Amino acid sequence: MAIWYTADTHFGHENIIPFSGRPFRSASHMDSALIENMWKVVKPEDTLWIVGDFAFGPAAKDMNWLEMIFGQLPGAEKHLVVGNHDGELSQLLPWDSVSQLTEVEDNGKCNVLCHYPMITWSGARKGALQIFGHVHNNWFGSRNAVNAGVDVWDYMPVTLADIERRARKLPINKHWTDVEQRTAAE
Q1: 107 belongs to a structural domain
Q2: What are the residue boundaries of the Calcineurin-like phosphoesterase domain, all occurrences included (predicted)?
Q3: Confidence (pLDDT) at 61
């Protein structure tokens, strides 16, 4: 069983296409491509984490439409970390969990998922990564906090190994030492 991460799918959201420069003709084209990409990698026994902004726009106010999109997602477990565009109806879908922030054990590491990039989090000093979305293609992240959004991962979900590889190539957050100074008591 593998664990997959993605963010900012924005199913049904026409305006996200020009906003983020997505290469799709319409929201329905985008929705189909995102679901097809998920099925290319996420196996029926896998776990899928949506790190915020599952769906948005007029379609996201239609529970039947949301259930139809949700029903096409691959994986045995599906989890939502709530983003700023995840309304009440999206949160009411039959997710295995819905949270604002969570810690996920993956490959022996406990990492923190939050839709919004954070400056520090539980376990950060011990190498825990923060996996976020929200910023679309504006920022890949830093050495210890990585954007899992579809806009920076070729519209595909990714594994922790993918995230760790990218993290090693990213710069150290320039504010890291402002909030995580080592003390003599450590």
Answers
A1: yes
A2: 1-96
A3: 96
Q: What is the mean pLDDT of the chain?
A: 94
pLDDT in tens, 46-102: 999 999 999 999 999 999 999 999 999 999 999 999 999 999 999 999 999 999 999
Residue 109's contacts (CB-CB under 8 Å, 6 or more residues apart) are: 127, 128, 129, 160
Q: Judge if pTM exceeds 0.85.
A: yes
Contact (Cβ atoms closer than 8 angstroms) between residue 9 and residue 55: yes
Q: Is the pLDDT of residue 183 over 90?
A: no
Structural domain including 154 reads 3-179
User: How many independent structural domains does the chain possess?
Assistant: 1
Q: What is the CATH number of the domain that holds 51?
A: 3.60.21.10
The CA angle 66-111-42, to the nearest 5 degrees, is 45
Inside any domain, residue 119:
yes
From the centroid of its chain, how far is CA 50?
5
